[in-house]
Every structure is written in structure tokens, then in C-alpha cells.
Amino acid sequence: MHNVWMTPPTFLRHAVLLACALTAEVAAQSYAPDYFRQFQASTAMDMVNRLPGFTFDGGNAGRGVAGNVLINGKRPAAKNDALGDVLGRIPTAAVERIEVINGGANGIDMLGYPTVANLLLKQMDLVSMSTTASTSILPDGSLTPSLEGNYSLKRGDQNITALLSRSRSPDMAQGLGTRTTVFTGPTPAAQVRVAGAGVAENTAVKLGYGQDLLDGQLTWNGALLPWTYQSQASFDAASHSLTSNDNAGHTREQGLTYSRDLAHGASIDLKALYRSSETSAESATITGSDTSRAYTNTSATEQVLGGQVSWQPADGVVVRGGLERAVNTNETSASYQANAWVQESRIEGQLSSAWQVDSSLSAEAGLKVAHSSLTVGADQPEAKAHVYPKPRLRLSLSPLPSLQLRLRVEREVNQLNFGDAAAYFDPANKAIRDDYPDLAPAKTWLCEGAIEYKFWERGTAMLSYTQSHISDAVDRMPVRTVTNTYDVAGNIGDASADSVTGLLNLPTDNLALPQGLLKLSTTWRSSSITDPVTLATRRLSGETPLSWRVEFSQDLPQQRTNWGISVDNGWSNDSWQVAERDTSSGSGWARAFVNYKPLPNLMVTLELNNLAGRTITYDRMHYAADRLAGGVDFVEHNITRTQPFAMLRVRRDW
Questions:
Q1: Cβ contacts of residue 263 below 8 Å, gap of 6+?
Q2: Closest to 311 (Cα-Cα) out of 300, 302, 322
């Protein structure tokens, strides 16, 4: 019989080959379109997802948080456009190459990330169009069709882009469930069967135009985004009740950016943005012959003006300075409270410098100073202004080409929730606030260390630890008077938080699964704060102690197919109010997909979502007075079981 065990020399040979692969120098950091043909990439997003050792982060355009992909060295200007959507509209034919930059190089703004991808577009005339038709397929066989069309023209120094889409999507957080309430007193427990369903409809019209002007590049973008959401939930108990929600709104945006190179290695970037939104929400509850109604109407605007100057006095050294002014206004009227008008004015200046000392060492130091003030009520005096310094220091060291060590120390200042601010400064409750300071945003000192190791061609292992010290944390707090205790949002003191994140991207080419990639990620979190009601130590509200995700994908070029699966552990978190403790959790989410390209310009995708049928629970423990006095008067347990669903999508490039 043949001996299947490896002889010692064979084992040693494999061990040596593995060690050499693990310590090999990282592959070239510039990737031409030819590299991505093996993955059948159709868009820039497909290319970014296949970059060796790179993990895409879309950021949050609506909150002004940049993603880790640049286009021609710049971040996209529109706040209503997700970075992944922008990249998904760029055909591979328009891409010259993609540069993966570690630690900063050639004057690139790293946007706070250790690694960014810079997408460089070709200087050529190009016309591209695409249409995408898709539909969700629900368990009862109903369909929710969507359609999107994209057009892009590049001719000379002019660029024109247009998008028109209409989508309809089900609310998969709703379904069949029960609500069980157990009372402390003699009242018997009550159980209610709940059946809910909802659907959202979205329309998008987006336009963009760019051209050279005065030796620079001028870009304009505009968007109109109307939407609706409708839902119904029935409650079968001793008396049947029906609750319906009818929400609608729209967002308008216009943005203007101008970039120009100046003399002596300097450049200037200017931007202007105006954004407005209107939202109306109406709800009705019918119980027997009784009907109750409620409404909320909100209008908001955002105006931003800013500029930044970058200067590269020497190779590997970049100095940046800038100034930005933002005015955010929010006005809310509701059936359950008085009208609320809140305006925040903020001016922020920044100065930073980045040094690429050599191929193994880079550093960045900077300081932002923000001057912020709130005005609540058009006829109310302006609240006290605050000045918030936000220093930062980032270091990156690569003792080996495949190994990177990172350190980050930074101070962050959160943005106040306008709803919390309006309620806190409510003139009707002003008397109870006399002994309390103004509501202030939370401020956090972050210290983060990370080690990242790259192996083979696409393998990455990363481990990071973050320690946070939070002052003026915002949560629910009691405001006590002689006759009443009020539950409001407020500053409840200092907190500490720790997190450990691990990431592994493991190519499976050597594991009998060619062109496959296994991704494992997990984050552990711990925090501590003094509860303002009981004065005991607890976690921060809304913190999930542990989250993990497993993904596998494989490209099969001969079959013109790629497929993948993913599963996560869902979430579980607690939140505390003066007289209530709430626990929310959702079981894991499993997804599988397959992409098939019968033609080079045609992609058919089938997705199977929520394969395990997510279960969502929401528990309330309610106290008769408050959590300090104790005395639970009832416990409510809500459970909803959601159903799997499929999605079919066809994309055609023209």
C-alpha cells in the first residue's frame, strides 16, 4: 500500500516553501486592469474588492466620514452618494490603474486610514452606459422590482454623469411574532400575536458635470431623492388593533468643488455644499371603534463652505492647512410636543503635516480646532459657544515589507443629536434646567495600536487594540424636582471603552480551492460608565460585546462565474432609561450569492438572503418609579421571526 504520510524531507520542503511565502515581500502596489481580468471585473468596485490585502471601507458620506478609496487622489464630493455606488458606476475601461498606498506617499491624503486605494482614470474620450433591473422575491411569491440607468460621457476636459433609478424594497425586519407581558401584581400575563409588513420606495435623480477652468478642475453635482415608507402591524389580543405608518420625504443636494495646482508643489481644494431635506411621518392606531393619530414633520438644511491648501516642500513631506464653516438647521413639529428649532454653527480650522521618512517609516501629526455654538428656538438666545481642540498623531513602521506596525492617538468630538438638544433646551422645561450645565457633545481620547502582516499574494492578518477615554458621555439621565423625575438626554460623566479587532484574509489557492478567499473578522468590546440612576457601573448603551463575520468567495473564470457565502452573529445590546432597561438582539444573518456572465457585458446575479431566518427580540423591564427605587411593575418580551428572501439582478453594460 502507498504511504500517504509525507516523509521528513518532503515535510521539511513544504515547511521551507511556506516560510518563504509568508516572509516574501508584498506584491507590487500598482495594479493595471490586466490584473483583474482573471476575476471578470466589470466595474471599479469589482476591481477594488479584488485588490490583494486590501479591505474596502465605504465610510459614511452623510456624516462626512471619507472611505478608503480615492479617485484621482480626491474623495468624491457628494454626501448622498455611497462610495461603493460611485465605484460601481465606473467601468473597468475607464481605469488606468489602482495604487494601493500604505502609510502615505506622493502627497496623498490618507483620510485617517493606514491604507488607501487611489483609482486613477484614463485620459481618454469614453462613453459608457449601463442598466440594472432587479427584484426581491418574497416567500409568498410577490416581487418588488427596481430599475436603474447610468450614463457617463468623458470628452476632452469635460465629464458628464447621470443616474436615474426607481427601487422598491421590503422591510425584512418585520414579520410574525408575539408580545408577552408579565405583570408583578395580580394582573394575569397577556400575550399578543403580532404580524407586520412594510415596504420602502426610493427614486433617485443624480447629475454631475466637470470641466477644466482657470488651470484647475471644476465639478458640480446635484441630486433629488424622494422616498416613501409604509407599514402595517396587527395585534391580535382580547381586542384587535391595527397600527399603520405612512412616511414620506425628499432630499435635495447641490455641491461644487474646485481643485487647482499652484506653484512650488502646492495645490488648493475648495468646496461648497447645500443640502435640504423634508420628512413627514403619520401614524394611526385603530382599536375597536377608537382611532388615535400622531404626526411628525421635520425639515433640515446643511450649508458647508471650505478650503484646503496642500504644500509639498520636499519629497515625502506634505503640509496641509484648511478652514471649513458649516451651518446645520433642524426644525421639527409633532403632535406630542411643542415645535423645536435647532441650529448649529461650526467653524473648524486644521493644520497637519505628513512625513514619509523612508519606505518603512511614515508619520502624521495635526491639529483641528472647532468653534461650535447651538441656537435653540428662533427667539431664544444663542447657547454658550465651545472651542474643541482635536489633535492627532499617527505612526506607521514597516520593519519588513510584509509587516506593518501602527499607532494612532487622536481626540474626537461627537456631533450632538438635534432631537436631544431640542428636548434639553425646551423652553417649557427651562425651569428644571437651572442647576444643570448646557448639553455638550461627548469627547473621546483614542489610543490605537495595530499589527498587520501580509503573506502570499492576497493574504492579510491584522490585530488591533483600541482604548478610549470618553468625557461628557451622552445618555438618558434623571432630572429631579420636588414633585417629578424627568427622563432626558444629558451628559452623565466619564466612561472608558476597549476593543480588540482581528481580521484574516486567507487565500485558498493552496487548499484545493483556486482563486478563493476566506475572510474572518471579529471585534470584542468592553466599556464602563457610572449609571446616573443607580450609581452602579455598567456598559455603554447600545454596545454589542462581541461581533464576528465569516465570508468565502471564489472566482471561476472558465465557468464565467463567481460565488460566495457569508454569515455573522447578529447583535445584542442593552440600553438604560430612568425607569426602564431595554435589551435588543438579532440572530445571525446568512447570505449566499452567485454571479454569472453569459456575455462580457452582461451580468446575472442571484442572492439568497436571511437563509437561517433571523429572529429579532426586544425586551423591556419597566419600573414603577425608577431603577434606583426598584420595584419592577412589568416585563415585556417581543419576538419577531423574519423570513428568507431572494434577489435577482441583471446588469447590462452598453
A1: none
A2: 322
Give 644's DSSP letter: -
Other CB atoms within a 10 A radius of the CB of residue 416 amount to 20
Classified as helix, coil or strand, 215 is coil
Residue in 248, 166, 184, 206 with CA at minimum distance from that of residue 61: 206
* Per-residue cell: 244: 399603520
Q: Is 380 helix (H, G, I), strand (E, B) or coil?
A: coil
Distance of alpha carbon 310 from alpha carbon 350, whole angstroms: 12
17, three cell numbers: 516553501
The answer to whether residues 175 and 149 touch, using CB atoms and an 8 Å cutoff, is no
Closest of 529, 504, 533 to residue 518, by C-alpha: 504
d(CA 524, CA 544) in angstroms, rounded, equals 8
Q: Per the structure block, which three cell numbers stand in for 61?
A: 458620506
Residue-wise pLDDT for 363-376, tens only, equals 999 999 999 988 87
For β-strands 69-71 and 115-121, DSSP reports them as parallel
| Start-end of H helices in 287-407 | none
Q: Read out DSSP for 288-354?
A: TTEEEEEEEEEEEEEEEEEEEEEEEEETTEEEEEEEEEEEEEEEEEETTEEEEEEEEEEEEEEEEEE
Residue type, 563: W
- Average pLDDT over every residue of 182-199: 91
Q: Which three cell numbers stand for residue 414?
A: 461627537
Radius of gyration of the chain (CA): 27
Q: How far is CA 573 from CA 444, 491, 582, 586, 619, in A?
A: 21, 21, 8, 10, 11
Instruction: Sort strands 216-236 and 241-261 into parallel, antiparallel or unpaired.
Output: antiparallel
- Checking if the pLDDT of 24 tops 90, the result is no
Burial of 48 (0-12, 13-18, 19+ CB in 10 A): buried
Mean pLDDT of the chain: 88
Lowest mean pLDDT among 23-37, 73-87, 237-251, 345-359: 23-37
Cell of 484: 417629578
Average of per-residue pLDDT across 156-181: 93
pTM, rounded to two decimals: 0.86
Residues 35-52 have pLDDT tens digits of: 998 888 889 999 998 888
**Closest C-alpha to 83, from 61, 99, 55, 53:** 61
How does DSSP classify residue 61?
Answer: G
CA angle (8, 11, 14) in 5-degree steps? 150
Residue of 277, 205, 215, 286 lying closest to 247 (CA atoms): 277
Taking 3-state DSSP, the helix, strand and coil percentages for the chain, each rounded to the nearest 5, stand at: 10, 65, 25
Alpha carbons 193 and 173: distance in angstroms, whole number:
16
Q: CA-to-CA distance for 249 and 417, rounded, in angstroms?
A: 20
Predicted confidence band of residue 5 (pLDDT cuts 50, 70, 90)? very low
User: Residue 466, Cα to own-chain centre: how many angstroms?
Assistant: 19
Query: Of the ranges 326-330, 478-482, 600-604, which one carries the lowest mean pLDDT score?
Result: 478-482
Residue holding cell 480650522?
349
